[in-house]
Design goal:
Layout (H helix, E strand, L loop, with lengths): L1 E2 L6 E7 L2 E2 L2 E3 L12 H6 L1 E7 L5 E8 L9 E8 L2 E9 L7 E2 L2 E2 L3 E5 L1 E5 L7 E10 L2 E2 L6 E3 L2 E3 L2 H19 L2 E15 L14 E2 L10 E10 L5 E6 L8 E8 L1 H6 L20 H14 L31 E3 L11 E3 L1
Parallel strand pairs: 5-21, 14-18
Antiparallel strand pairs: 1-2, 2-3, 2-6, 4-5, 6-11, 6-13, 7-8, 7-17, 9-10, 12-13, 13-19, 15-16, 17-20, 17-21, 22-23
């Protein structure tokens, strides 16, 4: 679970089927966005990689432990996926009075953000929940008919439409593959009406392969079937530090396991060594070996047959030294050749 040092006691994670997804460190420098608060946001960002699985619903889990202290009336949690706002939640002391004592959380508190809320068509005041779902990116090739006239390349009207599609897909893919949660401090909470609005229901069915050039992205997020919700109570709270100055930002870059390996986020699995197959000798080769053995004689290291009463010695065996003779070496004898030793028998 991603820990945010700027909000002690807060952890945020992405889960599938109730299991927290394993997180991998993102060593890339956080890009400083232009405009007001860009440097502040970069300094407050925690970034992780997670593995995405096609057609699996996921939830964003927010957890607060007893080290969390509420230093303001409320905290805001805003969820952006693929660059688009999806959900906003408010945690206020007034909502969870039994969890707080003088601003200090006295027992753990957690909640799941399971999807986005959309208005029910034609039914005022009723909303639907649509779950978050990982969807594999499908690509199409850009097939462009060209006319070559006097070495001048002229684009047809169809070409211009295709180029517009590529540009639109490129803008979408730039922010695709990321779940971002912004945490703000909030002021006093007041009642509000539903702000649910129509949100893009899914990513483009297919994107041009050129829009993915240089990007190891494998999935986007689509929305699951609509599920009717019981009437909800909505609240509003002002961001006391300003929209551009969140207390913390958590980013989850989701990729397939193959994409994570291509980015060297996950170590590649080494290819298994091919087994060494030793061919068993054929009967023909066995016969040749036996014939060669009988022609050459016993191999080195084999025992020699000894006839009874006959002692055999190897020709190259070292001779034994006899100790019944006495060797006298005269070290005082003068010699014409320096360094010679005279042996006296």
């Amino acid at each position: 679970m991603a820990v945010t040092p700027w909000v002690p006691g807060l952890t945020i994670a992405v889960c599938i089927d109730g299991t927290v997804l394993h997180e991998y460190d993102d060593d890339e420098d956080v890009e400083v966005q232009p405009g007001l608060g860009g440097e502040h946001q970069a300094s407050r960002t925690t970034s992780k990689y997670i593995e995405s699985t096609s057609d699996k619903d996921f939830v964003v889990k927010v957890s607060l432990d007893t080290t969390f202290r509420m230093d303001c009336p409320a905290y805001h949690f805003e969820v952006f996926i693929d660059g688009q706002w999806m959900y906003g939640a408010v945690v206020a002391q007034s909502f969870y009075a039994s969890y707080f004592s003088a601003g200090q959380l006295i027992r753990p508190l957690s909640f799941d953000i399971c999807g986005t809320i959309q208005p029910a068509p034609g039914i005022p005041g009723r909303d639907f929940l649509r779950s978050f779902r990982f969807s594999r990116i499908e690509t199409s090739k850009l097939l462009t008919p060209y006319m070559h006239i006097e070495r001048i390349l002229i684009l047809s009207a169809l070409d211009e439409d295709m180029l517009k599609d590529v540009a639109e897909d490129s803008r979408f893919m730039k922010e695709a593959g990321e779940i971002k949660i912004l945490v703000h401090r909030g002021g006093e909470v007041s009642a509000a009406i539903s702000q649910a609005s129509a949100i893009r229901t899914h990513a483009p069915a297919k994107v041009h392969e050129k829009s993915l050039k240089g990007q190891a992205k494998s999935h986007t997020t689509s929305l699951g079937p609509a599920k009717e919700l019981a009437p909800l109570n909505y609240s509003a709270s002002k961001m006391i530090d300003g929209k551009e100055y969140p207390r913390a930002i958590c980013r989850f870059k989701y990729r397939s396991i193959a994409a994570l390996k291509s980015l060297l986020i996950v170590p590649r699995t080494p290819s298994p060594e091919p087994p060494i197959i030793l061919e068993s000798p054929s009967p023909t080769s066995n016969g040749r070996q036996n014939a060669l053995q009988s022609h050459v004689g016993p191999s080195i290291g084999s025992s020699m047959k000894r006839e009874r009463g006959i002692k055999l010695e190897e020709e190259n065996a070292p001779k034994k030294v006899k100790f019944d003779e006495i060797l006298t070496i005269d070290l005082t004898e003068d010699s014409d050749d320096d360094g010679d030793i005279v042996v006296l028998n």
